[in-house]
Specification:
By secondary structure, the protein is α/β, with parallel strands linked by helices. Strand 1 and strand 2 form a beta hairpin. The protein is globular and about 55 Å long.
């Protein structure tokens, strides 16, 4: 195979990969510096990343799937580093990049995914496309300064929650904050160390990591969170004391859901009947049964979920 040369001259590209942390073969944290100013965004919003079909793929997926010269674009939530090297919260101002938390998509098919095999072939200094206008209504807008906040994610779905956590802690949020993430294995928790440090620094913040393919989970504070766990099962318990003295109260708690659609369990709306929830039960139905309300266009509830999937 000839030596690969990044496509520096393509006019479609407007940003540069300045940092790539490969957590393992299927997971990375990518920092992208745009040409010009970093676009302003609200924690929880997303933008697009793109590469041309001309770009190489990785490993066994390294074969062309499209002979046309075109730009492949996908939406990714904006994550963030949260803490600097000294352990202080990173402010949005002055950070010359956007951070993305990306999983390699693999499928048992003759036609593998188009974009992530190309993203995982990137090197530092490679050019790419990044959307200049972050979008999305999945933000902290409805949250009051004294409200409790529960963030629930699977895998890289915790990317927008990282930005939310940083924002809440930076503005000295008065309410309690709990971030839950469910992954297959502990090695899939790329931000685990950061969140453990946050727990030590901020008494109103807690991080709960669950695994589905390992016998033990990773929350050192609560022995009850052990064994194979799914988020829906955990929250379906009659009483869910998150931490000492704290059980979620729908009257003063907002819940944010991001990740696998099966975990979220968004209902399908029917003009002639009630909402139909999927089977098996997801987080939305579980929370509604406990008195929470889904945030609709005309009903400002306290269950919010990311809709761009």
């Amino acid at each position: 195979m000839p030596e690969y040369v990044p496509a520096l001259g393509h006019p479609e590209y407007n940003a540069t990969a300045i940092s790539i942390r490969r957590v393992h073969d299927d997971l990375m944290i990518l920092r992208v510096e745009p040409d010009g100013d970093v676009p302003a965004y609200e924690p929880g919003q997303y933008t697009t990343l793109g590469l041309l079909t001309d770009e190489r793929r990785i490993g066994e997926l390294a074969h062309p799937d499209d002979d046309r010269h075109r730009l492949i674009r996908r939406a990714y939530s904006i994550s963030c580093p949260i803490l600097d090297e000294d352990g202080a919260l990173v402010g949005k101002a002055g950070v010359p990049f956007l951070e993305f938390y990306i999983a390699l998509v693999r499928r048992d098919s003759d036609t593998p995914p188009s974009l992530t095999p190309r993203i995982f072939a990137l090197d530092v200094g490679h050019r790419l496309f990044m959307g200049r206008r972050p979008k999305g209504t999945y933000t902290l807008g409805p949250v009051g300064s004294d409200d409790d906040v529960i963030l629930v994610a699977t895998g890289t779905g915790e990317a927008p929650h990282n930005a939310m956590v940083r924002e809440l802690l930076a503005r000295k949020h008065h309410g309690r904050i709990a971030s839950f993430v469910c992954v297959r294995q502990k090695r899939d928790l790329a931000y685990l160390e950061t969140h453990r440090r946050l727990e030590q620094e901020f008494e109103n913040y807690h991080y709960v990591a669950l695994t589905t393919r390992e016998p033990e989970n990773t929350d050192p504070n609560h022995s009850r969170f052990v064994g194979k766990q799914y988020l829906q099962d955990l929250f379906s318990k009659v009483q869910l004391p998150l931490y000492e003295g704290w059980a979620p109260n729908p009257a003063c708690t907002h819940v944010f859901l991001c990740g696998n659609p099966s975990m979220i369990g968004a209902p399908k709306r029917s003009p002639d009947g009630p909402e139909a929830y999927p089977d098996p039960k997801g987080m939305i139905e579980t929370l509604v049964e406990k008195g929470f309300r889904l945030d609709h266009a005309h009903d400002q509830g306290n269950i919010h979920f990311e809709r761009y999937w």
